[in-house]
Amino acid sequence: MEVVYERPKSLFPVATHYCPGCGHGIIHRLVAEVIDELEIREKTVAVAPVGCAVLLYNYLDVDCYEAAHGRAPAIATGCKRVHPDLVVFTYQGDGDFAAIGTAEAIHVAARGEKITTVFVNNAIYGMTAGQMAPTTLIGQKSTTTPAGRKPETAGFPIRMCEIVATLPGAAYVARVSVSSPKNVVQAKKAIRKAFETQMRGLGYSLVEVLSQCPTNWHMTPFESVKWVDEKMALYYPLGEFKVPKEE
Amino acid sequence: MEKGKVKGIYEDVIMAGFGGQGLMFIGKLLAYSAMKEGKHVTWIPSYGPEMRGGTANCTVVVSDEEIGSPLIPRPRAVIVMNNPSIEAFEPKLQSDGLLLANSSFVTRSATRKDVQATFIPANEIASRVGNEKAANMVMLGAYVACTNIVSKESINKGLEELFGAKREFLEANMLAFEEGMKFVQEKCLKTK
Amino acid sequence: MTEKRFMAGNEAIAEAAIQAGCRFYFGYPITPQNEICEYMSMRLPEVGGTFLQAESEVAAIYMTFGAAGTGARVMTSSSSPGISLMQEGISYIAAAELPCVIVNMMRGGPGLGGIHPSQADYFQATKGGGHGDYHLLVLAPHTAQEAVNLTMLAFDLADKYRNPVMVLGDGNMGQMMEPVEFPPPAKTEFSKKEWNLDGARNRPRHLIKTLYLDPPVLEKRNLAIAHKLGEAVKNEVRFESFMVDDADVVIGAYGTVARIAKTAIKLLRENGVKAGLLRPISLYPFPYQQFAKVAESGKKILVVEMSLGQMFQDVQLAVCGKTKVNFYSRVGGVVPGYDEIVREVEKTAKESG
What we know:
Chain A is an alpha/beta fold. Chain A is built from nine helices and seven strands; from the N terminus they run αββαβααβααβαβααβ. In chain A, helix 1 packs across helix 7 and helix 3 (94-100) packs across helix 4 (102-110). Chain B is of the alpha/beta class. Chain B has six helices and six strands; from the N terminus they run βαβββαββαααα. Chain B has a six-stranded mixed beta sheet with strand order 2-3-1-4-5-6, with helices on both faces. In chain B, helix 1 (23-36) crosses helix 5 (152-163) and helix 3 crosses helix 4. By secondary structure, chain C is an alpha/beta fold. Chain C folds into two domains: 5-235, Thiamin diphosphate (ThDP)-binding fold, Pyr/PP domains (Rossmann fold, 3-Layer(aba) Sandwich); 240-350, Rossmann fold, CATH 3.40.50. Chain C contains twelve helices and 15 strands. In chain C, the strands form three sheets. In chain C, strands 3-2-4-5-7-6-13 form a seven-stranded mixed beta sheet, sandwiched between helices. In chain C, strands 10-12-11-14-15 form a five-stranded mixed beta sheet, sandwiched between helices. A two-stranded antiparallel ribbon of chain C has the order 1-8. The chains are: A alpha/beta, B alpha/beta, C alpha/beta. Chains in contact: A-C, B-C. The interface between B and C is medium-sized, with 24 and 28 residues.
């Protein structure tokens, strides 16, 4: 019988701790599939963030660091500079990548560090249970913007892809989502391109994945994917912002 | 350290002047040359924003024993190449200490009577032998003539090693150094 | 021994690191230790190593974390305000049990403070500095030559104990030039195969982490680190006893102040005052027993520091009231002169027992 669907070899055969409807499980799987397809499990090093995905290493069967909040790109840099032949990626949430770790995020791209970042933007702080993220939309309620995010006091959401794409060191920058089967397929393509960009030594690669957080958005999973498409993707347009030149 | 309290070879000196007068360099040269003679040496600069254009100084200690303090509150000798430096360091000099001042820039005479003051028109002397920039070497020559802490040959060799291939600089500097030595020796002959 | 080279302390430390096998350096410029960065940027490429100027001290310490996780010999350096910024990362490195060397050329604080020499980071260096239960091993050289030797030793200790090691100097030591020699490095090889990250080829994957959500598990981890440091406390106490045997007054001082104290001791002995120096070389572990011995023999102790009484507390702890401990300090970048130390020792000597 032909196998049409199976667990990627780079994933441990365990259930995740993520809430029902959360996007992280899908994104983990996409990363693992790409690692399998590129046959790089034995030369991949992952750097886990602080945030919901801190336990990434419980699911991904590759060498892993667990970083401090926001510092994953610096750790990845230290590792990659020792072993330029490894494939090193950071997996970071919006607080990690766009708030506390903004300096590291910008400068890893500015240096053109040959690493990849999978940046999961769900517009909320999940692990600490629903506070405002740097990417929380205007008007969006969180436990620290109970009346909705007001720009007068809480400023505006940050579009990281658009910022990073301006830096010459960034070789591949794309924004995707995992809100529908079609978008999941696109997301995997982008993650694969990002890893390939690194492996070809072209520079820094970033894939921002818009992801749903039904728990902290107080929605059903179905409502939450709809919200990604109808609200988030409006402010954070999907697409490729930068691709390696010769393509 | 105070004279008379140390057996063996020991000298300390503070060199001070404008940034760019080459005091840091002659301090290093003195320490380097003494090191090559097998002596213990320390060289320590004043550091910080005041080095840019303002008054800079360095302290050199040379000894045949391991050196404790590289910083000298009451120096045995000071080389001063501008007015702020004589103001700052003449009062710190030990009794009977050596005050070597570049009279091309220092416009006042010594105020203390208990020190051995020598005023040297270092820039004029250096110009005369071909390179006014070597005024620092005139001062170092004077200091070495007074203390005999290193040999002229060691300074020559040290200069060669620190300056590398720049032959013409080397000769002008060495000439200036010798003129500084001569100036002090002639002055001593006159007073004796 | 090779030929003597005339080098500033900062450069000597950088070269010593390279000779000890350090091939990776991450740092951010700050006075008075810029010469370490500059020297590394010039020398590391010559030996096939990597120098990287980070965007901040925060990034620098985590780049150090990343490189240390591969098992490579790696160093970072900074001065007081920058070291404060690194404290989070240092705590993580200690928790992850990664070997690395951190140099702190102390300057006056608190805050931006000044750029002149200080020893006011003693607590930060020896008592942990960051959050949680851990210690750095801390080595405090007092000459450029000793800075070379201790920097080399620092790499070996870091590997041996899988713990960050700090070389603690001050602005004075970094800027001062002295003759130095580079002894051939001890060929100490430490297997890193059990834990380092270099891709999970033909082995189970390795994981470097510091999060333990189950309290009994975290307790066990903390106790294991404490046990390891306990071994270091047993094996790695280093000190110099200078003219202590017949001394009536023993100066307790480290680093730059200790070498100034040596000059003071010479002058005091010329004056008939028997002074000596007990100089901690390792500040963690601290030579408590050696200070206790001095106290038990009835000698008086004078601690001289460029802080408002930090090592002083460790000496008091060691002495436990058995003798009087006097204290003298200059702070804010002011270095105590040997004349001041002479005066203070004479005062201490005259005090009734």
